[in-house]
Amino acid sequence: MDIATIIGFVGGATVICLGVFTSGGSLMGIIDIPSVLVTAGGSYAALFIVAPMSQAVGLFGVMGRAFKTFDYGEKNLVQQMVALSEKARREGILALEEGLDELESPFMKSGLRLVVDGTDGEVIRKIMENEMNKIEARHMSWVNVINQWGGFAPGFGMMGTVIGLIGMLNNLEDKSSLGPNMAVALITTLYGSMMANWLLTPIGQKLLAQNAAEVSSMEMIIEGVLSIQSGDNPRILAMKLLTYLDPKARKVVEADVLKD
Question: For position 259, what pLDDT does the model report?
């Protein structure tokens, strides 16, 4: 569970509630079912126009990833790649085939299998980079749909406000209802802003960060596989992969993989 996402959602809800209470209002004063239907329902319906049915329906499962943490094991990758490089130098490239099935990463496994099969380094790079790019493209297509929803929500919020104002203007003779009707009309604008700035855009950005971390780990694997294929010294391989780690993680791994 990603605690940061939970803190963001709970913190945002708390701040909104405090804002309502300190302004002299009540939670019931900002709850309006028709406004929810127009803003949330209308903006979601628009997704079926811009995105395939599979994405519009499956979007919520993807958004759930924002509440999960993913460890791509960059530190372990460095150590594992160095160990494999040392084994290849001692026993030869073919010796790597013995432990391939034990590797957790399918991406690393497929790359090393190409190495064992004697595939040219440039061909290996093209195959692995193409797979990485396709994975990233799929991730980005989901993020784009979420961002589109976040863009539609404020527009439908304004649309709901206009609908409410039209209803209010049609009943101008009842002056006692002008204030309450105006408040209800503005609620849809609030809902649209909340959906965009508190829910959808932050979730999209969290998924972008997860994608960047996964792509970075795949780039590490590509670099390691190609170093093993070209017969690089394990120390050189380690120095290449350490550049992908942040200073704190690098310090932890460096003493182990760069030992004399």
Answer: 65
Would you mind telling me the total number of residues written for the chain in this entry?
A: 260
For residue 238, CA distances in Å to 39, 44, 53, 153 come to 52, 48, 45, 48
Nearest to 141 by CA among 21, 52, 57: 52
DSSP per-residue string spanning 80-137: HHHHHHHHHHHH-GGGGGGGGGG-S-HHHHHHHHHHHTT--HHHHHHHHHHHHHHHHH
77 contacts: CB under 8 Å, gap ≥ 6: 105, 108, 217, 220, 221, 224, 241
Q: Residue 245 and residue 105: Cα distance in Å, rounded?
A: 18
What percentage of the chain carries pLDDT values higher than 90?
56
